[in-house]
Amino acid sequence: MLIRHAPDLTEAHVTPKEAYVDRRRFLAGAGAAAGAMLLAGSAKATALSGAKSPFSTDEKQTSRDDVTSYNNFYEFGTDKADPAAYAGKLTTTPWSIKVDGLVNKPATYALDDFVKPHHLEERIYRHRCVEAWSMVVPWLGFSLAEVIKRAEPQGSAKYVAFETLVRPKEMPGQAAYFPALQWPYVEGLRLDEALNPLAILAVGLYGETLPNQNGAPLRLVVPWKYGFKGIKSIVRISLVEKQPPTSWNLENANEYGFYSNVNPQVDHPRWSQASERRIGAGLLAGRQPTLMFNGYSEQVASMYSGMDLKANY
Ligand code: MTE
Q1: What is the CB neighbour count within 10 angstroms for residue 277?
Q2: Which residues contact ligand 1 via a Cβ below 6 A?
Q3: Beta strand 133-143 with 121-128: parallel, antiparallel or unpaired?
């Protein structure tokens, strides 16, 4: 992505390795319903399990080490290693999520209450970054559509806006003198996109609660779009009438559009999107072709029929 300024990070921000390793220890006691086991952003990783999904790919999963150490989370710095190094400091307990805007049932939920009504599913999805690398990630999450329906959107609601936490004391990238982005990180979907069965809110990956660097305790996963649409550490979900601002579009509208659907035929102004590098595949593997809508055309193409996908990149 375009990085204009180096973040103001020092060695002092580094999380002690023991703290990070401790987080990854499994706790006993997984169940089927999400709420019972989530333990609201517990400081330690908690084991989770979810029902299998027909939407999962059987492609080889990217190793847990790669998924949790090669990240984009600019609140913690712009280097791929920064989120794993610094995100351990983020306090995720307590955590609340506000659902507001054009809904009949606005509410602010504690994380456990937000998650409790839902059943977790494992969704093994391809994950394609706009930077032309990709992974296959076994997420654990639940349908975003159910969350939206629970809030009872009003007729005038046309888009869903999402917002990440602002906490510069724990997020060194937000405290940087030259921030890489404006904060909070914001994202958005058209309402029909948000209601698509592929769109989930993830609370875990690889059978445990999300590590902070992957967006604990709650992040969006929309696998037919470039990875930056998958906003992390969500604190607010608003139903709105007009297309909401989105972080990378604010940063450079010419390079990052609102839709950002994976499309091998529409190149980024500075590089091709026709192929991708699968993280962990090894040097000899070479690049692989990028698929339209990241291979999810069957589920999503009808939402864009008649739309000029070059103009609406
Ligand atoms: N969400 C927030 N709040 N801040 C970020 O910098 N980076 C995005 C997205 N969500 C980002 C974010 C980008 S560019 C990508 S590719 C994915 O998160 C990366 O997710 P991963 O680190 O779990 O692979």
Answers
A1: 15
A2: 1, 71-75, 127, 129, 164, 185, 214, 227-228, 230-233
A3: antiparallel
pTM: 0.89
- DSSP H helix total and E strand total for the chain: 10, 12
Residues in the chain: 313
219 Cα: distance to centroid of ligand 1 (angstroms): 9
Cα of 47 to ligand 1 centre, how many Å? 23
Nearest residue (by CA) to ligand 1, atom 11, is: 73
Query: Tell me, what's the pLDDT at 22?
Result: 37
pLDDT band at 12 (very low <50, low <70, confident <90, very high): very low
**pLDDT tens-digit series, residues 102-145:** 999 999 999 999 999 999 999 999 999 999 999 999 999 999 99
Q: Probe ligand 1: pick from 68, 182, 228, max atoms within 8 Å of CB?
A: 228
Residue 78 CA to ligand 1 center (angstroms) comes to 11
Q: Look at ligand 1, atom 9, and give the residue with the nearest C-alpha.
A: 228
CB 262 within 8 A of CB 191: no
The b/e string for 180-218 (b: 16+ C-beta within 10 A; e otherwise) is bbebbbbbbbbbebbbbebbbbbbbbbbbbbbbbbbbbb
Residue 35: is its pLDDT beyond 60?
A: no
User: What percent of the chain is modeled with pLDDT above 70?
Assistant: 86
pLDDT at 24 over 80: no
Question: What domains, with CATH codes, occur in the chain?
Answer: 14-302 (3.90.420.10)
